[in-house]
Structures are given as C-alpha cells and as structure tokens.
Amino acid sequence: MGNDWLLIGFAAFVLTGTGLAAALAAGERKSLPIAVQAWAAAVALALLAAGGACAVLHLGRPELIFGALAHPSTGIFREFVTTGLTAVVLAAYLVALLRRAEAGTTHMLARAGALLALCTAAAVGSAFYMPWRAGWNTIAIVLPYAAWGLAGGAFSAQVLSEGSDAAEPSHKQGS
C-alpha cells in the first residue's frame, strides 16, 4: 500500500488541525482580534490539507482512493468526509473573518468548525477499531484521539489568548 509514516503524518496533522479548529470557537467567545483568529484558521486549514495529502499519498493509486471513498462504512471514508467538511467550514469561517462578517455568523461558523473538528478526531480514532484484534476491539480506542484533539484545542486556545493579550498593549501604546 504505502508508507506507514504517512498514516502517522495524517493523524498528527489532522488532529493538530482539529485542536486548532476547536480553539477558534473559544477565541470567538473571548473576542480575540480578527488577525489572530484568521491566522489560526489559516494554519488549521493548512494542517488539515497536509493531513489529507498524507492520506492520499498513503493510498497511492487513484483507484485505491476512489475505492475507499466508494465504501461509506470504512474508517477511511469517515476520515476523508469529516476532514473535508471541517476544512470547508474553516474556509468559510476564514472568508467570513476577512470580509468582516457579523459576529453571529463567525460565532456560528467557529462553533460548527469545532464540532466537526471533534467529529474528525473521533473518526480518526474509529478507523483504528479492529474487532478481530485483541486490544483494538473496543470503541475506547477513539478516546486517545479525541483527547488529542481536545488537548490541542485547549492548548491552542491558551496560546492564542496569550498571544493576543501580549500584542494588545503595544497597540494601545501606539494609539
């Protein structure tokens, strides 16, 4: 098939991107500056795209990619769909931010992105569920992946908040 390092890259990029996407909702609630939120959304999109590229490269031949997308019951299908939906919502959020949309619109898009990001983290974890293999035959296998997404979200929210707090005094001094 492909190199297993690409699967590790997929999980790392996508779960880090989902954490950052979840942090955007917290940033909206705290009314972080638009530039900080836009930068974070762009980075989250880049991480999801890098993860998607790793997944496609792992599958290799186009017929394997289309074969995976033709079977909705597979873990790969759930991963691709949730990652793609999260990326679409994040792109809409980024466009809304850059066009200075109303706060209600950006709040709704950030919350939808956070919810889809958590679904993506669960989908990544559920792809590792293997009922035929001891130790991997429990749905609890999803928990570490969901925890990675949540922990990434909490960490990212803290970094974004502190980064915007550090930048604000310099803007106030220049005023």
Short descriptors:
175 residues; mainly alpha; 6 helices
Distance between the termini: 58 Å
- Indicate the radius of gyration in whole angstroms: 18 Å
Tell me the number of helical segments per DSSP (H or I, 4 or more residues long).
6
Uncertain ranges: 169-175
According to DSSP, the number of beta strands is 0
What class do helices, strands and sheet pairing give? mainly alpha
Shape: globular
Task: Tell me, rounded to a whole number, the average pLDDT.
Answer: 80
Strand percentage, roughly? under 5%
Order of helices and strands: HHHHHH
Helix content: over 70%
Sketch the major β-sheet: none
Would you kindly provide a written description of the structure presented here, covering whatever features stand out?
The longest helix has 33 residues, at 142-174. Residues 169-175 have low confidence and may be disordered. The chain has helices spanning 4-29, 34-59, 62-69, 75-98, 103-126, 142-174. The protein contains 6 helices and no strands. The termini are far apart. By secondary structure, it is mainly alpha-helical.
